[in-house]
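Support request, please re-run this one:
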Amino acid sequence: MDTATASDAAASAAVAVEGLLAEFEPGRVLAHPADGLTYAVLGSVASAVTQHTAAGASTAVAGATSPGGGGAGGGNDQAVVVVKSLRPNKKDIAGVISQAAAGTCSIDVSAVNQEYTFADVTVPAFPSRFGVTIVCPCLPHHVEKFTDTPRVLFRETRAVYERCTLPWIESQPADKVQWLVNMLEQTKEQDRLLFQRPQFLLYAYQPAETVDPHKTPLHLLCLFRDLALRTIRDLRGCHIELLRAFRADLYEHAREQWSLRPERMRVFFHYHPTFTALHCHVTDLSDNCPTKLKDVLLDDVIDNLEADGAHYENATLPVMLRETSPVWTSYNQMKQSARE
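Re-run finished. Output below.
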């Protein structure tokens, strides 16, 4: 794509996002943390807007309709709009949606993949830039992902994994991670690709040429090509070399590109992860990337597998879930059956 074509595509995508936000009818607030930096709201948008946007060469929102949506013939699709401040700012940012819709701001669409659209928005009335994520059309699992709900903590034994977690993993539809397959097949978000190897790819959460951990917090995502590996529970001793190779290539890239030393990075898996295809997160040690209970350090995973190749098949692991999680429901049913 030449420079002029790329510029036209970016402009079209920005117009499409502006049009969607203009038609967005806010409904239920899903998340509005006390810090005031993140705001997620569920609402609706006319299906005709979704379809019109999808018809463009630079699609800014996915064109399929959600169950119950009206499709091309009319009706509404559900959408989630998430606004996040890119710099500390305690102002209520809910107004950013209406400002963006009014066309009084600058919209830079950074990526489009399936139902997800990511953009940076600058609003003259606010001193900060904002990250805007649009999920349209959205399904129940999207709503759950962005909804603030109470968490629960429990210990997942091998038996609990096999009876509660594994059935849930195996029930997940393949299209739920189509956005990830697009990245593995390199059909989407290629401006974020840092490097690739036969067994994995490393992506940034922003255009690759703009990554500079000395100026902004670092957040990278490693995707493993083998989709049979869904979580760390699937890792065995035979995967040690894969994990070592990723670690070595990551450290070399960080050193050469950003003069960033290994001790300035945190490399970790999540358990349970947000999506069930093995992936690894990379952040720097900034305050914007705090340690979470679900983090499992790559170094610890390698050490555990070196000591016992079947460690993650048999280990009891701490798990924090939403109270509404199907796995938590199954776990409680399992406990109830054991009492009877």
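Residues 47 and 326 are 30 Å apart (CA to CA). The chain has ten helices and 14 strands.
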